[in-house]
């Protein structure tokens, strides 16, 4: 752990073990010690739908995400500051991460527009023109008080091509300096920069170089998980992990699917977030080692097994597939129960990644994982390519 | 099942209902469920935060199709299906979460229920398929319940049918070690009530469920109807009623000698964003205290607060200071207000937890008052505190909503 820039950090990151590019680490944050690789469930409005903080602790969640855009609207940044921050408001004792609000704005507000100043949009409350600047985003996040805060970046859709991508990358660099200048709590909250550059390796390389220069506590790989080809996705992740400092956490935003998390971890990433597990749970889909179990399927009506016989979560211990089949999408609790299990699954996945790397059996874990997900050996080509770069032998999983 | 009566106070009685190792202290509140689940509280939360929730009421009507009796039976019954081994499960036909059937649509083939797949007519055979698969600890036979205002002829028919179906249910009962409540009907007709009670009492049942209440009877009539029914029931057998949900109705039922109640009152408050705040004991105890002089003078409704109201936006107090429930120990009015505002289900979970905890505590206070032979005094004290504001407790009219908001504002101003 290098000694540079300790004054601007509120975390410690210790790599405990490696396997080629993958690492198992300990991330010490103001509110909690987190083991990586780690998946962060998304608690958009200061809550993970239907789940109490006690249940989140039971599930082994160590860090969860809040959305700045939503929280600034309701309950409002000033109220949160008055109450003492989001931790106190939610009564969540462990770690929190907030995003910058920019992504939500661009995706939720169809009249949002990005200028050099910031993101202009119409207030969803009364339509008045508003502006979210890097300074404001950081100020709001300072009031919310999360352990990790994200810089406001100029994010473009992954499917965008042309000069807009380059413009966004350069602007992201200019904005990181404004974010750093505006950050009023560097010893309590860690500001992460976000690497942009679309799917262009040159742009990504430039962005990486400039952001690393700023010597931030951690870095995120942004602008992915937006519908791009998986083959492009993993290459950009690999390029970014290679270009980011060894001794700082790396966060791939918007990831997601268990398979993607395993691949990204093999390539050297540490942190992930996505609404997928909780959202798909609300629609009655359960995450199991074999893939996705659709509880609405007619075959579930007579299946008396638990969702996942190997899972030790409350839902798998108490309820059968046949019972859950009768309540998913029909009763409020039905959706909540499947989401609960899905979080348990993601926590177990995170723990398995961490411990298998720590105990020197990461390749074996990856092989088991792939064999369960692809029993017929039809492992996708992009995964095979990525694992080659990660130097993990998965030949026995592929037909 | 064993039922032991222990103390009496005026017409009320306190006792112990025992199912093997599980014990329920009566008078007792049964928690209503949909398909065996409370509306917003998962069973793990029940264990941690509501140790009092000894008994759940389930409706066999929820187990006719989805899940069907065959699946329930294949798992080994409702206790296994839902991992409820440490809870008492009571099967009552009335669907507390369903729409109110207008009650006149029963036929000679069965009682009518509104389900998500439309109106179903359920006869004893279908009913007992569900009961036999579910294997509840205690269950009531299938009644032909009709509203109080039905004709005498209809009430007569209802009594006859209910007795016939009772006999059918007993014949079809496949499990010999569970216990049966015979349902007594008769509406607002005292003669029919007597007839139903006497005839039911002659059957081989472990207790009685008083049917047809909470279906449109005039409140002033209710006490007389309860009394006239119970007069013909044996003292030593347990008595249950559905539909007496509000606190004053519960007190009325307890005074008449009823032991088991199921109530949707906590849930109905939750669904409107309200939390119970009424004091639970006559003297200051555990942080609760009777009305102060100012509060008496201000003439306020202190029975509940409206968490939707913006007065709670920054309120970092719990719903009730001193309340030991999970929601009050861990969270604030401000947080619950926010959750309601952004339509998050956790709001209903936290409110349900508090409202049930509060209502269970109310029942405990009732039992304590009986044990101290002070039930009458407790009831009078409680009733003197309740403010009826033009149907405020029905929470139906906008006027009373406005009035409640205004009173909450005054409440807030006085407390700050």
Question: Would you mind describing this structure in some detail?
Answer:
The complex is a heterodimer of chains A (399) and B (416). Chain A has 399 residues and is of the alpha/beta class. Chain A is 42% helix and 17% strand. In chain A, strand 7 and strand 8 form a beta hairpin. Chain A is globular. The N terminus of chain A is likely disordered. In chain B, a hairpin with a 2-residue loop joins strand 2 and strand 3. Chain B has two domains: 277 residues, Queuine tRNA-ribosyltransferase-like (TIM Barrel); 113 residues, no CATH class. In chain B, the strands form four sheets. In chain B, strands 4-5-6-9-10-11-12-13 form an eight-stranded parallel beta barrel. Chain B has a three-stranded antiparallel sheet with strand order 1-2-3. A two-stranded antiparallel sheet of chain B has the order 7-8. Helix content of chain B is 40%, strand content 17%. About 5% of the residues of chain B have low confidence. Chain B starts with a strand and ends with a helix. The interface between A and B is large, with 40 and 38 residues.
Q: Topology, pairings included?
A:
The complex is a heterodimer of chains A (399) and B (416).
Chain A: E1 12-19, E2 22-28, E3 33-36, E4 38-40, H1 53-58, E5 63-66, H2 68-83, H3 86-90, E6 95-98, H4 102-108, E7 113-114, E8 119-122, E9 129-132, H5 134-144, E10 148-150, H6 163-182, E11 190-195, H7 201-213, E12 218-221, H8 230-243, E13 250-252, H9 258-266, E14 271-273, H10 276-282, E15 285-288, E16 291-294, H11 314-318, H12 321-327, H13 332-358, H14 362-373, H15 381-389
Helix pairs in contact in A: 2-5, 5-6, 6-7, 7-8, 8-15, 10-13, 12-13, 13-14
Chain B: E1 2-9, E2 12-19, E3 22-26, E4 28-32, H1 43-49, E5 55-58, H2 69-75, H3 78-81, E6 88-91, E7 111-115, E8 118-122, H4 124-134, E9 138-140, H5 152-172, E10 179-184, H6 190-201, E11 207-210, H7 219-230, E12 238-242, H8 247-256, E13 260-262, H9 265-271, E14 274-276, H10 293-298, E15 304-306, H11 326-330, H12 333-341, H13 346-371, H14 375-385, H15 398-415
Parallel strand pairs in B: 4-5, 4-13, 5-6, 6-9, 9-10, 10-11, 11-12, 12-13
Antiparallel strand pairs in B: 1-2, 2-3, 7-8, 14-15
Binding site for Zn(2+) (chain B): 323, 325, 328, 354
Subcellular location (chain B): Cytoplasm
GO molecular function (chain B): metal ion binding; tRNA-guanosine(34) queuine transglycosylase activity
């Amino acid at each position: 752990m290098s000694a540079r820039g300790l004054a601007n950090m509120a975390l410690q990151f210790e790599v405990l073990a490696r396997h080629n590019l993958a690492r198992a680490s300990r991330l010490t944050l103001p509110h909690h010690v987190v083991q990586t690789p780690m998946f962060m469930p998304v608690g958009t409005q200061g809550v993970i739908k239907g789940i109490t903080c006690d249940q989140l602790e039971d599930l082994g969640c160590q860090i969860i995400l809040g959305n700045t855009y939503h929280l600034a609207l309701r309950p409002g940044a000033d109220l949160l500051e008055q109450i003492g921050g989001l931790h106190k408001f939610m009564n969540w004792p462990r770690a929190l991460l907030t995003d910058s609000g920019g992504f939500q704005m661009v995706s939720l507000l169809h009249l949002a527009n990005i200028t050099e100043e910031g993101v202009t949009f119409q207030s969803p409350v009364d339509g008045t023109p508003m502006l979210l600047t890097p300074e404001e985003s950081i100020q709001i996040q300072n009031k919310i008080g999360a352990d990790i805060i994200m810089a406001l970046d100029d994010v473009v859709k992954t499917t965008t091509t042309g000069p807009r991508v380059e413009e966004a990358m350069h602007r992201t660099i200019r904005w990181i300096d404004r974010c750093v200048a505006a950050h009023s709590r560097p010893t309590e909250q860690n500001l992460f920069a976000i690497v942009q550059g679309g799917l262009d390796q040159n742009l990504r390389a430039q962005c990486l170089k400039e952001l690393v220069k700023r010597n931030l506590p951690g870095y995120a790989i942004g602008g992915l998980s937006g519908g791009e080809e998986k083959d492009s996705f993993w290459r950009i992740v690999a390029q970014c992990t290679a270009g980011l400092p060894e001794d700082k956490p790396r966060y791939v935003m918007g990831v997601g699917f268990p398979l993607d998390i395993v691949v990204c971890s093999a390539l050297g990433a540490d942190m992930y977030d996505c609404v997928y597990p909780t959202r798909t749970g609300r629609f009655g889909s359960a995450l199991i080692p074999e893939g996705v179990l659709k509880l609405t399927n007619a075959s579930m009506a007579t299946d008396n097994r638990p969702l996942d016989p190997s899972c030790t979560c409350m839902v798998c211990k108490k309820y059968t597939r046949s019972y859950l089949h009768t309540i998913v999408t029909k009763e409020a609790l039905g959706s909540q129960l499947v989401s609960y299990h899905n979080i348990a699954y993601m926590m177990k996945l995170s723990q398995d990644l961490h411990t298998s790397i720590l105990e020197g059996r990461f390749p074996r874990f990856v092989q088991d994982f792939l064999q369960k997900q692809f029993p017929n050996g039809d492992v996708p080509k992009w995964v095979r390519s990525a694992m080659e770069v990660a130097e993990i032998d998965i030949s026995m999983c592929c037909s | 099942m064993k039922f032991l009566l222990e103390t009496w106070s005026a017409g009320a009685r306190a006792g112990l209902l025992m199912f093997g190792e599980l014990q329920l202290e009566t008078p007792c509140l049964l928690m209503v469920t949909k398909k065996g689940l409370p509306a917003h509280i998962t069973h793990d939360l029940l264990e941690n935060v509501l140790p009092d929730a000894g008994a759940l009421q389930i409706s066999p009507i929820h187990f006719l199709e989805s899940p069907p009796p065959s699946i329930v039976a294949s798992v080994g019954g409702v206790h296994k299906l839902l991992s409820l081994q440490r809870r008492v499960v009571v099967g009552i036909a009335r669907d507390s979460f369903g729409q109110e059937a207008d009650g006149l649509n029963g036929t000679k083939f069965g009682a009518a229920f509104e389900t998500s797949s439309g109106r179903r007519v359920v006869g004893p055979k279908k009913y007992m398929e569900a009961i036999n698969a579910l294997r509840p600890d205690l269950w009531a036979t299938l009644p032909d319940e009709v509203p109080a205002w039905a004709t005498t002829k209809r009430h007569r028919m209802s009594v006859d049918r209910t007795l016939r179906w009772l006999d059918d249910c007993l014949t079809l009962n496949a499990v010999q070690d569970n216990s049966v409540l015979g349902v007594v009907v008769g509406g607002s007709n005292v003669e029919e009530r007597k007839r139903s009670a006497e005839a039911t009492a002659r059957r081989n049942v472990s207790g009685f469920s008083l049917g047809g209440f909470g279906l449109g009877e005039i409140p002033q009539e209710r006490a007389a109807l309860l009394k006239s029914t119970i007069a013909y029931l044996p003292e030593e057998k347990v008595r249950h009623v559905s539909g007496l949900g509000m606190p004053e109705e519960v007190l009325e039922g307890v005074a008449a000698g009823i032991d088991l109640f199921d109530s949707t009152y906590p849930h109905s408050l939750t669904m409107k964003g309200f939390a119970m705040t009424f004091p639970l004991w006559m003297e200051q105890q555990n942080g609760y205290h009777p009305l102060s002089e100012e509060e008496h003078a201000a003439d306020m409704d202190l029975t509940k607060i409206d968490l939707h109201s913006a007065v709670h936006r920054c309120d970092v107090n719990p719903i009730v200071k001193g309340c030991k429930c999970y929601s009050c120990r861990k969270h604030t009015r401000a947080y619950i207000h926010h959750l309601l505002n952004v339509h998050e289900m956790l709001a209903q979970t936290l409110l349900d937890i508090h409202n049930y905890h509060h209502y269970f505590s109310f029942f405990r206070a009732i039992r304590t008052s009986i044990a101290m032979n002070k039930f009458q005094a407790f009831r009078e004290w409680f009733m003197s505190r309740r403010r009826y504001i033009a149907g405020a407790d029905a929470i139906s009219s906008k006027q009373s909503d406005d009035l409640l908001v205004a009173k909450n504002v005054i409440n807030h101003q006085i407390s700050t």
